[in-house]
Design a protein that fits this description.
The chain is of the alpha/beta class and 179 residues long. The protein has 5 helices and 9 strands. The mean pLDDT is 93.
Length: 179
């Protein structure tokens, strides 16, 4: 089983639903890039982080116990994967609170890590709800593989959050950083 190595943790991650000899990974280069960017910021342990659309828990599980992290999304499989991956890596299954997409978040958040969803309507709805949940000087960092990153994602971040800076591509992944 391949492990996910980030500046925060080395994790053994699985996808949901579990399949024997599954050749697909529970993480990608966008997850790695996002966590490396976050580590370079040297955040305080009191920093409140909201993780949106974390497919299999790679982001939230990496930050568990290091930051005050909350995960949210619209996928039941993502929630199951997060819980199983936390336990698989020696953490309590509820070490990261999961807020279903239809329930309100309890901000303010200093950092918001967003895996850009395939449905831009979901991203837009999340950004609208996020506006009054951000702390002063908060950053929203969106990540995606370039082939899955529509131009409109940056436009939505700029419309609802603020000025956007696109990172250089790394391993076919890109970050969009809004302040």
């Amino acid at each position: 089983m391949p492990s996910f190595n980030s500046p925060f943790a080395d994790l053994d991650l699985i996808r949901q639903p579990e399949q024997a000899n599954d050749p697909l990974l529970a993480f990608d280069a966008a997850d790695q890039y996002l966590l490396e960017h976050l580590a370079a910021q040297a955040l305080q342990p009191s920093c409140r982080v909201l993780v949106l659309n974390d497919s299999f828990g790679a982001l939230a599980a990496s930050l568990a116990g290091r930051q005050q992290v909350t995960s949210s999304g619209d996928s039941h499989l993502a929630r199951l994967a997060l819980e199983k991956n936390l336990v698989r890596n020696g953490l309590a299954f509820d070490a990261v609170p999961f807020v279903p997409a239809n329930e309100p978040w309890q901000g303010p958040f200093d950092r918001v890590l967003v895996r850009v969803p395939k449905t831009l309507a979901l991203l837009e709805e999340q950004l609208i709800r996020l506006q009054d949940q951000l702390a002063p000087d908060a950053q929203v960092i969106a990540a995606a593989m370039i082939k899955h990153l529509p131009r409109a994602a940056g436009d939505l971040l700029e419309k609802y959050i603020g000025p956007v800076q696109a990172s250089l591509a790394r391993k076919k992944a890109r970050l969009l950083i809004a302040t």
